[in-house]
UniProtKB/TrEMBL annotation:
<dbReference type="InterPro" id="IPR055997">
    <property type="entry name" value="DUF7575"/>
</dbReference>
<keyword id="KW-0472">Membrane</keyword>
<dbReference type="InterPro" id="IPR025241">
    <property type="entry name" value="DUF4190"/>
</dbReference>
<feature type="transmembrane region" description="Helical">
    <location>
        <begin position="51"/>
        <end position="74"/>
    </location>
</feature>
<dbReference type="Pfam" id="PF13828">
    <property type="entry name" value="DUF4190"/>
</dbReference>
<keyword id="KW-1133">Transmembrane helix</keyword>
<protein>
    <recommendedName>
        <fullName>DUF4190 domain-containing protein</fullName>
    </recommendedName>
</protein>
<dbReference type="Pfam" id="PF24460">
    <property type="entry name" value="DUF7575"/>
</dbReference>
<feature type="domain" description="DUF4190">
    <location>
        <begin position="52"/>
        <end position="104"/>
    </location>
</feature>
<feature type="domain" description="DUF7575">
    <location>
        <begin position="6"/>
        <end position="30"/>
    </location>
</feature>
<feature type="transmembrane region" description="Helical">
    <location>
        <begin position="86"/>
        <end position="110"/>
    </location>
</feature>
<keyword id="KW-0812">Transmembrane</keyword>
Length: 116
């Protein structure tokens, strides 16, 4: 088999190269392969659990729903490979914190409004 047609010249010394060579035998220069090495496939993005995001958003807006969705998300994340455990936890904690804060505000408001 004649590989002359596919052989290329060394970019360093200009002499003919065998396609099988990784280095030029004449000058030692590295032969650039015709096919570039395949890019390493990026790790597949893990899905962000929607209930976890929902819990975080609701944790700021509607705390009781945040607690509910936070627990749903945390339960789902136990059995799935989804990301978002931290998001779900933050949402749930924010939900509880908001409930406590609202309760304190209501209690304070009642204490101020109702004379003892
Ligand atoms: Zn060469």
């Amino acid at each position: 088999m004649n590989s002359r047609d596919t052989a290329s010249a060394c970019t360093h010394c200009g002499r003919d190269l065998d396609p099988a060579w990784k280095f030029c035998v004449w000058c030692g220069a590295r032969v650039i392969p015709e096919e570039a090495a395949p890019e390493p496939t990026p790790r597949a993005e893990r899905h962000l659990n929607p209930a976890a995001v929902f819990a975080l958003v609701l944790g700021i807006l509607l705390s009781p729903l945040a607690i509910a969705f936070g627990h749903v998300a945390l339960h789902q994340l136990k059995t799935s490979d989804d990301r978002g455990r931290l998001v779900a936890l933050i949402g749930t904690v924010l939900g509880y914190a908001s409930v406590v804060l609202i309760a304190l505000v209501v209690i304070a408001w009642i204490q101020l409004r109702v004379p003892v």
